[in-house]
């Protein structure tokens, strides 16, 4: 019967033929993508079955799928204490601040670096700015400690003391930490974000700038009217990607750099640090999985929402 | 279609991390993993069972480990039909490695738990085999060697692990520099038990003499806080988060919230006094070096440590080289016997073991056979050590070898009955007598010996309580914050997190255990 309809509907038949030829034309690309897709399925989709652990009382004897169901009991501890609000607030606010500031500063530095004419100097600056990104948080912890230690730290010893200001016990004064953490985060992560923007800027055709210069545009006008608009897709992509991770805090930053100081918790404790402290002693797989499933779902929801907002505002820039 | 794919990609992106944590665990432990022999003797002796045992290290494995393994197998293969294979693991990774190996069904026959507060975490995941029958049949040597220390391996009334304790009691002390104790004419009495007030006076004298940048107590946030060194409590096989018995569990059945006790308030007020007077370093609650490491900088008067005779002897061997002085131990408690003493190192047989009988026979050998124990600890006679004169127990390094270049030595001594270890200088045979005296000097064991709290029914509350403790205790117990202000806040946070439910559950379990005993 369907055949009869197809024959009777030449328009649809043509459409199918077009689709088929399109598929054939792109077939090489699909084949090229195949290893990547297989990898993605193996690495990202198959293990996803493990999410059931979050809803189980894991028992090795019974295996993951044979273990008893626990319902939502594993999620309870996240909301069990009065700190639930504080850790959620800290996680979201810090990450929001990090996303905005990193994007802003990374773009500024990328544009500035792009204007450096000397090849060698430009390369050297790039390397210096990227270097902190490659450091382990444990090392950053000690670097920060060299500044902040109460008795031997640089700030207390060499800056505050000569100025006649009383030494500050940094690791026990929570009011300074939003600033300290932001500075440390920017110092460490700027290099990487900057590279991404720089590569986009380098990819912008020189013809635009040449035309603008001939028309007498200043540097500032060139940046505002050429660089930034052409950078928009990259900015939006990066932004949405980071938004998906907004509920995952950088454990190294919030645990190592604060040296896990309890007095700072109300300002510095994020979900990951809370989970670590709560489950350190009994390494409960169910509860740790529950925590990351919760984080993932919030991240997923945020990506969907932000993308649909972007789609409303400027359709061609939406991720999907 | 495109939309769907992209949607799935986005989902994958955010979920991949969630799945990461779970990805390592296969479905069910492979029960049919072949008990393969090493290639060396494949075919000829089929009855030989390979025992894969965890071998805790601090990251270094000695070059002659294979030689020791071979020497052990030369004994075990003909005698009990067991081929022993070491599986070296960093001590800090033991827990995660064991969990991973067991959950993915990898071959592991003998697992070690270090400083995890007992076997409960493994039992609740169904990772361990019960040992009661096995020990009764094959492990009598273990029971004889460990005695009351076997209490550390019980959970829910059943035996799941075998401790490696040669010392049945613990003494809490403060190790102080001997040169300074003499310099300031501090009255030192080795048998006296010192109180907070008396220690305060000593610290005051030393601090006044040494000045600003000298601290009296070396301590880090990760170590047992000050109050644990003064307070006689039984953790009931868990931690303070689930309540304690006071007076080392002698004579009282009431499980209490230690943090709400007078003792804790007193401890915090002294800690505050010490912090403000500069006996403690200003950043003490974030320092990561242990007290004994800080001591080596020469800027500290002393640190808290367990102070049984052998601990003091070891400290006195090491410290003259570090700081140019021996140490003296100010006693802070009587010798006591509580379950937590016996939970520091425990051997366990996980469900991935196919032949628990043979594994238990090997374990029994580790607790009874002097040659095997010392092979594990000191290596091969004539290569890694030799006897001093005619002694059967005193050993030394052979000519040209010392602790720095010996081909094998176990850094962590977790091998069976340690009272059968040979002794290196400066220890001599008097070590064995000291050990016996120490064990005989325990006046009374805790009533709760062998009881272990099962936190499973209240794990949500316990996780929240632990999180509250991690927020407050380090700063309170080290005097960084004002206890009058913070303790009430801390206690209400504990209650909000559900510590009373946890303690009630603990009390109910304890009463049931006591009734059944």
Features:
heterodimer, A: 320 residues, mainly alpha, two-stranded antiparallel sheet, 13 helices, flat, B: 517 residues, 18 helices
Please specify the SSE layout and strand pairing.
The complex is a heterodimer of chains A (320) and B (517).
Chain A: H1 2-8, H2 10-45, E1 56-57, E2 68-69, H3 84-115, H4 119-130, H5 137-148, H6 154-160, H7 177-202, H8 206-214, H9 219-244, H10 251-257, H11 265-268, H12 271-279, H13 285-313
Antiparallel strand pairs in A: 1-2
Chain B: H1 2-23, E1 49-57, H2 65-80, E2 82-90, H3 94-103, E3 111-114, H4 120-124, H5 132-138, H6 140-146, E4 154-155, E5 158-159, E6 161-163, E7 172-177, H7 178-183, H8 196-210, E8 215-218, H9 226-230, E9 233-234, E10 245-246, H10 262-276, H11 291-295, E11 300-306, H12 309-323, E12 327-331, E13 345-348, H13 356-368, H14 370-378, E14 386-387, E15 395-396, H15 430-440, H16 459-477, H17 483-497, H18 499-516
Parallel strand pairs in B: 1-2, 8-11
Antiparallel strand pairs in B: 3-13, 4-5, 6-13, 7-11, 7-12, 9-10, 14-15
Helix pairs in contact in B: 5-6, 6-13, 16-17
Strand order of the largest sheet of chain A: 1-2
Q: Separation of termini of chain A?
A: 36 Å
- Helix content class of chain B: 40-55%
- Most extensive protein-chain contact, per-chain counts: A-B, 66 and 69 residues
Rough outline of chain A: flat
Helical residue percent band of chain A = 55-70%
> Which blocks of ≥5 consecutive residues of chain B have pLDDT under 50?
16-45
* Beta strand % of chain A: under 5%
Q: What pattern of helices and strands is seen along the backbone of chain A?
A: HHEEHHHHHHHHHHH
């Amino acid at each position: 019967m369907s055949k009869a309809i197809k024959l009777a509907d030449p328009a649809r038949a043509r459409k199918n033929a077009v689709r088929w030829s399109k598929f054939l034309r792109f077939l090489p690309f699909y084949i090229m993508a195949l290893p990547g897709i297989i990898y993605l399925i193996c690495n990202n989709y198959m293990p996803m079955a493990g999410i059931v652990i979050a809803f189980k009382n894991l028992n090795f004897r019974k295996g993951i799928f044979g273990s008893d169901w626990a319902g939502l009991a594993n999620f309870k501890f996240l909301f069990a204490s009065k700190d639930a609000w504080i850790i959620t607030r800290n996680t979201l606010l810090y990450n929001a601040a990090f996303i905005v500031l990193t994007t802003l500063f990374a773009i500024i530095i990328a544009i500035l670096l792009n204007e450096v004419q000397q090849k060698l100097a430009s390369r050297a600056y790039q390397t210096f700015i990227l270097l902190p990104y490659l450091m382990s948080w444990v090392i950053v912890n000690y670097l920060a400690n060299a500044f902040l230690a109460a008795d031997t730290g640089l700030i207390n010893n060499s800056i505050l003391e000569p100025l006649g200001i009383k030494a500050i016990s940094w690791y026990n004064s929570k009011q300074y930490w939003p600033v300290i953490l932001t500075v440390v985060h920017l110092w460490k992560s700027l290099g990487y974000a900057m590279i991404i923007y720089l590569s986009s800027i380098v990819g912008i055709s020189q013809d635009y700038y040449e035309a603008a210069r001939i028309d007498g545009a200043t540097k500032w006008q060139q940046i505002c009217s050429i660089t930034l608009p052409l950078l928009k897709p990259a900015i939006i992509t990066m932004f949405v990607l980071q938004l998906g991770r907004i509920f995952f805090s950088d454990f190294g930053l919030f645990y190592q750099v604060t040296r896990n100081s309890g007095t700072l918790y109300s300002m510095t404790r994020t979900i990951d640090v809370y989970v670590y402290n709560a489950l350190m002693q009994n390494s409960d797989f169910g509860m740790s999985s529950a925590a990351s499933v919760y984080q993932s779902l919030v991240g997923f929801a945020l990506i969907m929402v932000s993308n649909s907002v972007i789609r409303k505002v400027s359709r061609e820039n939406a991720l999907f | 279609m495109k939309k769907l794919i992209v949607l799935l990609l986005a989902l994958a992106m955010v979920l991949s991390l969630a799945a990461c944590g779970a990805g390592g665990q296969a479905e069910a432990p492979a029960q049919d993993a072949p008990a393969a022999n090493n290639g060396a003797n494949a075919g000829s002796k089929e009855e030989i069972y390979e025992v894969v045992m965890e071998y805790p290290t601090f990251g270094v494995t000695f070059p002659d480990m294979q030689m020791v393994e071979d020497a052990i197998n030369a004994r075990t293969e003909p005698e009990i039909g067991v081929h022993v294979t070491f599986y070296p693991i960093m001590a800090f990774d033991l827990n995660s490695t064991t969990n991973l190996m067991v959950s993915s069904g990898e071959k592991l026959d003998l697992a070690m738990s270090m400083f995890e507060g007992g076997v409960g975490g493994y039992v609740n995941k169904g990772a361990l085999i019960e040992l009661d029958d096995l020990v009764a049949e094959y492990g009598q040597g273990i029971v004889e060697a460990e005695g009351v220390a076997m209490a550390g391996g019980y959970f829910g009334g059943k035996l799941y692990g075998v401790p490696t304790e040669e010392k049945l009691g613990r003494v809490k002390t403060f190790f102080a520099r001997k040169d300074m104790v003499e310099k300031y004419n501090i009255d030192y009495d080795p048998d006296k038990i010192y109180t907070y007030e008396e220690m305060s006076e000593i610290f005051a004298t030393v601090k006044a003499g040494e000045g600003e940048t000298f601290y009296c107590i070396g301590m880090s946030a990760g170590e047992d806080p000050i109050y644990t060194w003064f307070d006689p409590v039984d953790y009931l096989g868990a931690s303070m988060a689930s309540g304690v018995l006071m007076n080392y569990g002698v004579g009282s059945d009431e499980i209490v919230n230690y943090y709400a006790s007078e003792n804790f308030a007193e401890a915090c007020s002294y800690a505050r006094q010490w912090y403000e007077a500069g006996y403690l370093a200003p950043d003490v609650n974030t320092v990561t070096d242990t007290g004994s490491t800080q001591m080596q900088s020469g800027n500290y008067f002393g640190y808290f440590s367990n102070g049984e005779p052998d601990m003091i002897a070891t400290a006195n061997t090491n410290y003259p080289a570090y700081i140019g002085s021996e140490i003296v131990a100010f006693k802070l408690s009587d010798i006591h016997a509580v379950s937590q003493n016996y939970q520091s190192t425990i051997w366990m047989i996980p469900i991935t073991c196919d032949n628990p009988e043979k594994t238990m026979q090997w374990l029994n050998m580790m607790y009874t056979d002097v040659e095997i124990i010392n092979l594990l600890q000191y290596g091969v006679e004539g290569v890694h050590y030799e006897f001093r004169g005619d002694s059967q127990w005193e050993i030394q390094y052979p000519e040209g070898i010392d602790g720095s270049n010996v081909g094998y030595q176990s850094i962590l001594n977790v091998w069976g009955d340690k009272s059968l270890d040979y002794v290196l200088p400066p220890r001599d045979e008097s070590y064995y007598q000291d050990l016996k005296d120490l064990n005989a000097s325990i006046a009374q064991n805790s009533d709760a010996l062998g009881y272990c709290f099962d936190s499973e029914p209240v794990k949500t509350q316990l996780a929240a309580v632990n999180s509250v403790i991690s927020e407050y205790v380090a700063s309170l117990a080290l005097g960084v914050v004002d206890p009058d202000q913070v303790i009430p806040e801390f206690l209400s946070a504990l209650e909000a997190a559900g510590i009373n439910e946890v303690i009630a559950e603990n009390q109910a379990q304890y009463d049931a255990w006591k009734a059944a005993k």
